[in-house]
Design brief:
By secondary structure, the chain is an alpha/beta fold. Helix content is 20%, strand content 26%. The strands form 2 sheets. The chain has a 7-stranded mixed beta sheet with strand order 6-7-8-9-10-11-12, covered by helices on one side. The protein has a 6-stranded mixed beta sheet with strand order 5-4-3-2-1-13, with helices on one face.
Length: 211
């Protein structure tokens, strides 16, 4: 089974298997994302606009009326057809096996949880935590690592990579970084990867990673 992962700007990913597509976190910063007619499922990890753009989701629904949407309870009030997944339950939609994990968005202010948030493992290969550093229920082959946000420090991203120790990683959640900021931030993540034997992939927007 060949999986093609495409990163759009910031936190949006598309995963394609045998011509069918899973979309994760189509937010307002993900300008290169274009809905297609072959989308089986959408995952919205939480309610923040950089992960959930109602206009993008509306376009997806128009092209794919039978699409299955997984999201948090708060977002279901905006999407009538969406459902809240059970954490740790494995759910199969078309070519995609999904296992959700986690519950809380990482705090920006100590002791305050901004909202619900979950991560997902796709086909036992790719782990994406949303806005958190929750550990996935399995050691994934590929980890999408958040690297820039009001809720994180770069050493937390580095510790997360070391704790998960996947085979490969690529950075995500990086729209707030300038080119200089990316070079510095990616450099620290790359250093951690080198130390523990993990492959670092600088996946540019619209670039594909084939597994």
């Amino acid at each position: 089974m060949i999986m093609k992962i495409t990163k759009c700007e910031h936190a949006c990913l598309t995963i394609e298997v045998d011509g069918r597509v899973l979309v994760i976190d189509p937010g307002v910063y993900s300008t290169s994302f274009r809905p297609s007619e072959n989308i089986d499922a959408v995952i919205i990890t939480h309610e923040h606009s950089d992960h959930f753009d109602p206009e993008k989701v509306s376009e997806i629904l128009q092209l794919n009326p039978n699409v299955v949407i997984f999201t948090t309870q708060k977002v279901t009030s905006d999407i009538a057809s969406a459902r809240v997944p059970n954490i740790n339950e494995k759910i199969v939609v078309g070519n995609f096996s999904l296992q959700f994990f986690g519950h809380d968005h990482a705090p920006i202010v100590d002791g305050v949880v901004p909202c619900d948030n979950f991560g997902v493992v796709v086909n036992d290969i790719l782990a994406y935590p949303g806005d958190s550093f929750e550990l996935s229920p399995i050691r994934p082959q590929i980890l999408a690592v958040p690297v820039s946000a009001p809720w994180l420090k770069i050493n937390e991203s580095m510790k997360y990579v070391a704790a998960v120790k996947p085979v490969k990683i690529f950075p995500t959640h990086d729209a707030l970084l300038s080119d200089i900021g990316k070079s510095i931030t990616y450099g620290w993540i790359h250093r951690t990867c080198d130390e523990i034997g993990v492959e670092f992939i600088d996946l540019s927007p619209s670039a594909e990673l084939t597994i």
